[in-house]
Amino acid sequence: MEYVSDYSKLLELGNLHEYLKYISVKHPRSYVYQELKGESVISHTYKDLANDARRAGNYLLKNGYSNRHISLIGNFNYEWLTYFFALLYSGNVVVPIDYGQSRERILDLAMRADANVIIARKKILSGDREIVVDENIRNIIYFEDLDSIIKNDAFEVADGAYAPPTQDTTAMIMYTSGTTGISKGILLTHKNILHNAIATASRIGEHAFEPGRTSLALLPPFHMFWIAAGIFATFYYGDTLCGSENTLKDIERLIKTFRPTCLISVPQIADGIHKKIWAMAKSTGKEKTLRTALKVSNTLRKIKIDLRPTLFKSITESFGGNLHTMICGGAAVDEQVIKEMSDFGITILVGYGVNECSSIVSVNPPERQKNGSIGLPIPAPFCRVKIKDDEIMISGSIVMSGYYNDPEGTEEAFDGEWFKTGDIGHIDEDGYLYITGRKKNLIILSDGNNISPEELEAQIRESPIVDSVLVHVKESSRAKVLHASVYPNAQYCEANAITDVKGELMRLISQMNAENPRYMEIFDVDVRDAPFEKTAIGKIKRYLYTNESINT
């Protein structure tokens, strides 16, 4: 395993703000963030960020905010990034909160983390999300105040005026995704996150990042995968992040403006890009030509002739012309999507992340990818992986110190030093990790057979008429039976004149039932009119849909 050249120096850093200072010296004139505002581009260097975060951190210290839990609420931009490092610099604990939730939900998460100070964008806390200063929320600092804060030299704090955080200081309380019920607050230290950054940067390497390259992140800043891959791993290489006030709505403009080399996203985005390529080919009558070009290209690549930049230039140009890497996390990526995107010249790096382990546990190395695998675990002493009773278990310096105010939950989550991920998987002879389902999602039928619903869902999702699917149990008067709920891809169905969606799905299910073991037979399928409720990164909130019953 080759580490980044100066990893030993990074290990000696005392905290995450020192990591930023180190990077700002290494890449002082490289842009850390470029924002599209109207028709203008606003740019900030790594040196700008380090200085601005220190000034904002001193403001917090002057106002008595140190060793506090403080909620950070807003979409990702330079203000979010500055306040994030300002909180770390001043020894506070960052509590990132999903800004798309209700006022009650935001307040509940803040109160459960004992965060009675909020830093937020004004318009996010307006209207039906308005939060006022009261006995619960003692103060609100707004993103819009940052310029005046960092320009005020009176906020400078003398050296030695406070004790900076150490590697063992808690840096963040990051909430679990909430796919299986009430979110838990994960305690992550400066060391947890720093070590994950070092290991991730070494694993992904310069294939994705380097000074002068631009990455477009399509993930929310309250998800640990984004913080680990989108901030700390990109920073090591001096990569530039880009975005706008509403990045997801401005994707096409951002791609045209910044011509990114890397997209950091969830599998839904990768799947959408893949579908768009084939839809464009079909609508222009070039589908057959594209398939022929793929066959020719793949044949030539076997004899070391790579014509992808020429043959598929029109495809890469439609995504800015420079895109060569997508880093996906949060869920599985379809193997066919990974293969065909690679055939077009765009590498999809699939990894496995666990919030309790500072996110990234394994990554498929760019030069040694295995389809179907979630990659090679990042190395010891940062991370050790073992399989016990089919469950993936992890120990090492990236593993959380526990759940906040939840000793029982913490004890239940560990087997000695090993964190129990709840994921079912195995490791092959080459050390690659595979995941086949969630232990909590495992369906145990009346005959004693165990079913991983994710395995059946993956088969159903292969159909282009399926947008999303959930396989679950319905209780009949006689036995437990498997049932599939499907939200269809309306755009595909309309384009292909498919009106009997349930009929098409039942034909698919019948074919699956014929090929799968009898105990995996799906009893029925229903077609949903409304999409599933999902987390911010696109995972279905399974617990909302798995307690149904039928009478037969």
Q: End-to-end span in angstroms?
A: 57 Å
Low-confidence stretches: 548-552
Determine the mean pLDDT.
86
Please summarize the sheet with the most strands: 9 strands, mixed
Strand order of the largest sheet: 2-1-10-9-11-12-13-14-15
Given helix and strand content, the structural type is: alpha/beta
Q: What share of residues are in beta strands?
A: 15-25%
> Helicity range of the residues?
25-40%
Radius of gyration, in angstroms, nearest whole number: 24 Å
Would you write up a description of this structure?
The protein has 552 residues and is α/β, with parallel strands linked by helices. The chain has 18 helices and 26 strands. The strands form six sheets. A nine-stranded mixed sheet has the order 2-1-10-9-11-12-13-14-15, with helices on both faces. Strands 16, 17, 19, 20 and 21 form a five-stranded antiparallel sheet that branches. Helix 2 (16-26) packs antiparallel against helix 3 and helix 7 crosses helix 8. The longest helix has 17 residues, at 46-62. Residues 548-552 have low confidence and may be disordered.
